Amino acid sequence: MSLAEQIFSYAFARRPDGSLAVMVAETEVVLRASGALWLERERALVVADLHLEKGSSFARRGQMLPPYDTRETLDRLEAEVRSLAPRAVVLLGDTFHDRDAETRLAGDDAGRLAALAAGRALVWVVGNHDEDGPAVLPGEVLADLSLAGLALIHQPTGGPARAEVAGHLHPCARVAGKSASVRRRCFVTDGERLVLPAFGAYAGGLNVLDPAFRPLLARPPLAVALGRGQAHPVGWRSLRPD
Length: 242
Known about the structure:
By secondary structure, the protein is of the alpha/beta class. The protein has one domain (3-240). It has helices spanning 3-8, 54-60, 69-84, 101-104, 107-115; strands at 12-14, 20-24, 27-31, 37-39, 44-47, 88-92, 121-125, 140-142, 144-147, 150-153, 164-166, 171-176, 181-189, 193-195, 206-207, 222-226, 231-234, 239-240. The strands form 2 sheets. Strands 9, 10, 11, 12, 13, 14, 15, 16, 17 and 18 form a 10-stranded mixed sheet that branches. A hairpin with a 5-residue loop joins strand 1 (12-14) and strand 2. The radius of gyration is 17 Å and the shape is globular. The two termini are 23 Å apart.
């Protein structure tokens, strides 16, 4: 199969804003260059794996990182909210890096998170790092969510799954170039399931060629790498291991 055939076996459309509309099962979803998922009909913005206060968590263990990850992540999230004016914001698990992260939030950052619920639904889908959800901040706490014909959950269920949207694995793509390769966070889909990239500034990522992805994908998938202002479809044969 040629590179063009790998890519164009998937139905997608480029949007003027640089995002990419693709089909997951029978639902059209929009993959944003920020790493956010946009469900247009429902006007729902979905982001996964913010890992807020990861910097302060590392600092408590003596690994000093610049303590600005929460601020930077919220800046990017608020930019998406301003751009899209969603009716709902869905935080797809591991929004906090650990159970105590909410108590370590600076007051203004806590206020910014609370403001996400003003005039819209705010849904916290819990993950393995934040199993209890927020203690004080507003919003609805759920284990999973059905929306737009899709099952939204933090951790992918085992084996191939139809119409599932998950996070947890922090997918990244290393893409071959003419003389070098670049590594970018990415979405990954086999047309039936979609795994979102981590949205958090310090979240890191796992190469999509890692064996962890193999049982989740029913066919060679499409990776959609995040670029500056544009989401880039990448054929499977253009990907490289780390």
